[in-house]
Amino acid sequence: MSLSSNHQDKDKSDLNKFGYAQELLRSMGGFSNFAISFSIISILTGAVSLYGHGLTYGGAGMMGFGWPIVAFFVMCVAAVMAELASAIPTAGALYHWAAILRNKRWGWYTAWINLIGQIGIVAGIDYSVALFADPLIASVFGYESSNTTVLICFSVILLTHGILNHIGIRIVAKLNDFSAWYHIAVVAVLVLSLAFFTKGSLNPVSYLFQVGETFSDKPYMFAFLIGLLQAQWTFTGYDASAHTIEETINPRVRAPWGIFTSVAYSFVIGFIMLAFVTLSIKDASAAAGSSNAFIYVISEALGGTFGSVILWLVTAAMWFCGLASITSFSRMMYAFSRDQGMPLSTQWAQISKKYRTPAKAIWLAIILSFLLAFIDYLIKMVNPDATYTTIAFLTAVSVVGLYVAYGIPIYLKLRAKAEGRFQDKHLGPWNLGKYSNVISFVALIWILFICVIMVIPPNQMAGYAVAGMLILLVIMDLSYYNKHFLGPQAALNKSMEEILRREKELE
């Protein structure tokens, strides 16, 4: 028997212990698992699409100080999540961790809050692609880019992601592998272009760490905190490595490394990219006041034609990011529906027999993400003088939703350890040892801090949106939870005969 077959049998056995059949196709290697999180983090999406936000509020110092500060604390969050993924290797990830560490109600709320964040991140990523792609397409075909044309472009992008995710994990995994290398290659091209072909000279390195300049009406320190959204939104979605854990070979080692290294590499590569973009700025005030600061800076530094080529390359990287985010979102929804956590759960938990993908969950993810952006579009039509931007709204929703969901199992792990219910014997092979509690505490403090910062003005609309969704969640708790939700722990009561029967049906 081959080493791969041994791993497959061990992985299947580990999953069976948590009460689940091996329904999804387990074919992802370690690099593929890393690549999906690296692609969703996508420094060429978050750092680029919100470059103007960071520059407007924090100036050049946002790139020199804001990015490393956020990255340090996010690596603490990622390390604790990696530890939990190694201990509980199921596709439900955050939601299963919370339910097992405490109870099914904690798991249920974690799942729904995570879904809120997932809707926001998919909508935010693909809207970012549209914000870049639509003006570039408009320049080719001669029409004027507007909110309406951006929304149409956004819809087409979502559609392509839905089709490819539906067709199969093998195609998506290969595209994600390519995406990881593509991101690195595009960053290299961008950095080398700015280093050697920038019109005029680059700013001195000290400019990158210049603080005190803001192009907002807020005091600098307060504005700097608001500007952290740029880095914080970039470092989201790395839980994808956990959501695809049932499709990963040797998941208790490879998925944790996927979570942690995707953040670490994104920090280093992203910092290099932001440094050269910022050092190439000719007029920071004009860039901050433009409709798209990144496009403005690149066009001024590299010229029209060369700059457009670079922007097309960046836009393609964003597209890959959106593709991976749909994969993660749909797997989380599939896992939750598998435990009857959603209305019409039997529909969303269905696996396509032909493609071995959660097809209906994929298309539900597409629809929900479109609706969030469409509702914002309608609000902007009714109130065209609204001061917040659509991209800031979508990204803030995703940051708050995802990080609250990240924080719940981290808190519950600390609580379970204090009560003696989670011990060293429960840890997987990837763990933080004696530093686990300290790193977990630091991660929780950062999550609390950043969630407050993300919903204060001018991002208050994101706070209203999250609050509205939470109210709906409480209503669903009262109307659906008690009658239908069994929780992931209920799966532990399933007989092995039932598990084997489900696996036989998929053969």
Structure description:
The chain is mostly helical and 507 residues long. It has a single domain (28-483), classed as Amino acid/polyamine transporter I, CATH 1.20.1740.10. Helix content is 73%, strand content 0%. It has 22 helices and no strands. It has helices spanning 3-17, 30-41, 46-49, 51-58, 61-87, 94-101, 104-141, 147-167, 169-197, 220-227, 229-234, 240-243, 251-279, 284-289, 293-302, 304-338, 345-348, 359-382, 390-418, 436-453, 460-484, 496-506. Helix 2 (30-41) runs parallel beside helix 13, helix 4 (51-58) runs antiparallel to helix 10 (220-227) and helix 7 packs antiparallel against helix 19. The longest helix is centred in the first third of the chain and has 38 residues, at 104-141. The radius of gyration is 22 Å and the shape is globular. The two termini are 20 Å apart. The relative contact order is 0.20. Residues 489-497 have low confidence and may be disordered.
Sum up the structure in keywords.
transmembrane helix, Amino acid/polyamine transporter I, 22 helices, globular, 507 residues, transport, mainly alpha
